């Protein structure tokens, strides 16, 4: 009887620990000195009947302005999926210095685990990539700053 109770206890612990969730957490750290927004759009799926289309998930995630000394941090929960991610700088023109941010190209974002995304000012490129779980968004291709021809938008 004791062996059966021990076996049932171990199996219940294993089954409780094996529960997964359909959501992942995206933490956005805004150091860009202007308000930003991130749009996530997953792909639509065609059903068995080709006239029916299951629309993909759509998220619009605003983040208030922050800087390097006092970053603005927002956390969102999204369904685990692969998304087309578009970053929007809300105020794209600096009237004092006359600097204008260009609209970055969309990127692919796979949210199968928790992700932290750091957005830097559009006039700077990161010197160090940081931890493996932090993605530093590049506002323009690396080739523009380093003279090499790559089109990576994220540094892992």
Summarize the structure.
The protein has 156 residues and is mainly beta.
| Unreliable residue runs | 141-156
Note the beta-strand portion.
35-45%
Strand order of the largest sheet: 6-1-9-10-11
How many helices in DSSP terms?
2
Percent helix: 10-25%
**CATH class term:** Mainly Beta
**Under the CATH scheme, which architecture would be assigned?**
Sandwich
Look up the CATH topology: Immunoglobulin-like
Number of strands: 11
User: Major beta sheet, specifics?
Assistant: 5 strands, mixed
Overall 3D form? flat
How large, in whole angstroms, is the Cα Rg?
21 Å
Overall pLDDT confidence: 76
Q: Which secondary-structure class do the elements indicate?
A: mainly beta
The number of domains is 1
Helix-strand sequence: HEEEEEEEEEEHE
User: Distance N terminus to C terminus?
Assistant: 53 Å
Structure write-up:
This protein is mainly beta and 156 residues long. The chain has one domain: Sandwich (Immunoglobulin-like). It contains 2 helices and 11 strands, in the order αββββββββββαβ. The strands form 3 sheets. The protein has a 5-stranded mixed sheet, with no helix packed on it. A 4-stranded antiparallel sheet has the order 5-2-7-8, with no helix packed on it. The chain is flat, with a radius of gyration of 21 Å. Mean pLDDT is 76; it is low at 141-156.
Keywords for this entry:
156 residues, mainly beta, Immunoglobulin-like, five-stranded mixed sheet, four-stranded antiparallel sheet, 2 helices
């Amino acid at each position: 009887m004791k062996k059966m109770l021990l076996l049932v206890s171990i199996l219940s612990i294993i089954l409780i620990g094996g529960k997964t969730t359909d959501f992942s957490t995206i933490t956005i750290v805004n150091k860009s000195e202007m308000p930003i927004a991130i749009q996530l759009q997953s792909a639509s799926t065609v059903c068995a009947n080709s006239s029916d289309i299951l629309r993909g998930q759509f998220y619009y995630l605003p983040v208030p302005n922050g800087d390097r000394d006092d970053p603005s941090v927002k956390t969102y929960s999204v369904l685990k999926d692969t998304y087309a991610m578009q970053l929007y700088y809300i105020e794209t023109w600096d009237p004092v210095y006359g600097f204008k941010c260009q609209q970055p190209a969309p990127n692919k974002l796979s949210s199968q685990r928790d992700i932290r995304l750091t957005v830097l000012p559009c006039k700077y490129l990161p010197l160090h990539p940081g931890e493996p779980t932090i993605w530093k968004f590049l506002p323009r291709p690396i080739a523009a700053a380093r003279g090499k021809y790559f089109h990576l938008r994220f540094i892992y």
